[in-house]
Amino acid sequence: MTTTLPLSQHALEALAKETMHDRIVGCLFGSALGDAIGLYTEFLSGETARLSYLSQKFTLYPRSEATPFRRDAHRDPNVPGEWTDDTDHAMCILLSYLHSDGKEMNTKDFASRLHIWVRMGLRALDTLPLGLGRTVGSIVRSKTFLEYPEETARIHWRNANCELAPNGSIMRTHPLGLMCIHKSLDETFQIAADYSVITHADPRCIISCAIGTALIRGLVRQEIYNEEHIDEIVSKAIEWFPTYRQRQIEKDSSCKGDPELDLEELNRHVKVGNLTELELDDMYKIGYTYKTFGSGIHLLRLAMRALVSPESRLSTQKTIFEPLITNLIMQGGDADTNACFAGALLGAYLGYKVLPLHWRDGLVHGEWLMKKAEGMSVLLGVGQGTYSGVQDKDTAPDGGRGWLTESQMDEKVMLFQADMVKRAQERDQQEKSERRQRAKRTSWLGGFGGRAQ
Fold first, then answer.
1. 337 is in an annotated binding site
2. Which residues bind Mg(2+) (predicted)?
3. What span, in angstroms and rounded, lies between the C-alpha atoms of 453 and 450?
4. pLDDT per residue over 45-70, tens digit each?
5. Number of separate helices (H) and strands (E) present in the chain
6. pTM for this prediction
7. How many CB atoms lie within 10 A of CB 47?
8. Helix pair 9-38, 203-220: axis angle to 10 deg
9. Which of 51, 61, 300, 338 is the most exposed place for a label (fewest CB within 10 A)?
């Protein structure tokens, strides 16, 4: 027997808005945290990841106690708690939307912001374009990109024999799911596709983005709360795709010869028994979009299964994000992107309030991200207060900081490299001091009641 709560319409709406607000913020932070934690093992094999982080425990806060990175050329440019290009690209979409006060989703504006990022980094945060992927870099640097982004991406894909299906678009499209909470499902699929083909024209990339974006939308709207709902979204996306493809052919007849979507392969990644089936550290397919897509959906399924039991639902909800993300990144591979997408899904499902504090509070640009998340919530009608994206200088294409000349960029890179050297020297000294202290303790313990062997 179910009991109906005697709440007024006003109380029900307030409760729904509060939950949606928590999930919107949770989605953005969950993704950024997955990205930041994933950097610890990005591009490592699972075995190397386990040898590099024996405790398999990570902390970002307090920052003085943050887990140090494995020392190598890939991680040396970053400090713990920083997100990567994955979240930067998502921020380009978010800032574009905020700048229009939520009135417009403009793919051309996003393409322009992506072009700016490749040359100057994220201007709003004055950061460099670290971690630029080959696919995005090649396409965005093309002379035709700004005027014809989709066509440029399609030519690049066809020049590679239509074989490239990297994860560079699925990692950035989670903000679209938030922007689409007032859109229909078909509109959501189409918007996700429109943003994917800016750089990723392969059908596998498009369907991954469409499903991922629709899942975020449904999770925030509280319409997706069990595995059957996940499968329904996948089925509806598969039904939608042929109509989308026909529209593409009508717009550009050359699309008729493009490969069909392999539904068997898609469905294999929609339902996996465990993460090892995905072979996430297969270096020949490390950035394959279905690996990111499959791992994210698998983690969402695991979270839903864990929350089935009413006896432990609350305690599980408060603790499950960390072990799921940790287990994912310990598989190695493109760990930051995999955890970025999975973190967005989990954050949209679990909410911001239950994200681990020793991760959440150590996010380097956390305060900045919170302001943007709150602004978005207001524009979507679920947050309190007021917000004007037009008046928020951060949302301008130049981030309110102006443009950098080539010489200024060179100087910025030199200063960054000098800071890297300084941080490396400081870490050398710290590690040397720790070795001395360990040696002293060992010597003292050996001399206390010890005997010659």
1. yes
2. 84-86, 334, 336-337
3. 9
4. 999 999 999 999 999 999 999 999 99
5. 18, 0
6. 0.94
7. 10
8. 140
9. 51
Instruction: Name residue 192's beta-bridge partners.
Output: none
85 marked ligand binding residue? yes
Alpha helices in 283-334 (DSSP H): 289-306, 313-319, 321-329
Answer yes or no: is 258 a known binding residue: no
Phi/psi at 401 (nearest 5 deg)?
Answer: -110, -5
Residue tagged 């941080």 (tokens): 423
Alpha-carbon distance values, 72 to 22, 78, 424 (Å): 37, 11, 11
Cα angle 18-237-149, degrees, rounded to a multiple of 5: 90
Is 336 labelled as part of a ligand binding site? yes
Tell me, what DSSP letter sits at residue 253? Answer: G
Q: Token pair 């005697």 is at which residue? A: 6
Residue 450 has pLDDT above 50, yes or no: no
Sequence-distant (≥ 6) Cβ neighbours of residue 130 within 8 angstroms: 77, 78, 84, 85, 121
- Rounded to an integer, what distance in angstroms lies between the CA atom of residue 371 and that of residue 398? 18
- Name the nearest CA neighbour of 326 among 59, 45, 48: 59
Q: Residue 94 has which token pair?
A: 């978010």
Q: Which amino acid is at 13?
A: E
Tell how far CA 430 is from the center of its chain: 32
Return the structure tokens found at 184.
């229909």
Residue with tokens 């994955």: 86
Amino acid at 348: A
Helix (H) or strand (E) holding 125: none
Long-range CB contact pairs, 396-401, < 8 A, 24+: 396/99, 397/99, 397/109, 397/112, 397/113, 397/116, 397/123, 398/116, 398/123, 399/122, 399/123, 399/124, 399/125, 399/126, 400/123, 400/124, 401/123, 401/124, 401/126
| Other CB atoms within 10 Å distance of the CB of residue 227 | 15
Q: State whether residue 239 is helix, strand or coil.
A: helix
The CA distance from 36 to 366, in Å, is 11
Residue 270 in this model has a pLDDT that exceeds 80 = yes
Which residue in this structure is represented by tokens 């024209």?
201
pLDDT band of 443, cuts 50, 70, 90: low
What is the C-alpha separation between 352 and 346, in angstroms, rounded?
10
3-class state of residue 403 by DSSP: coil
Residue 4, annotated as binding a ligand: no
Confidence of residue 453 (pLDDT cuts 50, 70, 90): very low
Q: How many residues does the chain have?
A: 453
Is 86 known to sit in a ligand binding site? yes
Helix ranges (DSSP H) in 78-168: 85-99, 107-120, 134-140, 149-159
Q: Which of 224, 132, 136, 227 is nearest to 177 (CA)?
A: 224
Q: Do residues 316 and 307 touch, judged by C-beta distance below 8 A?
A: yes
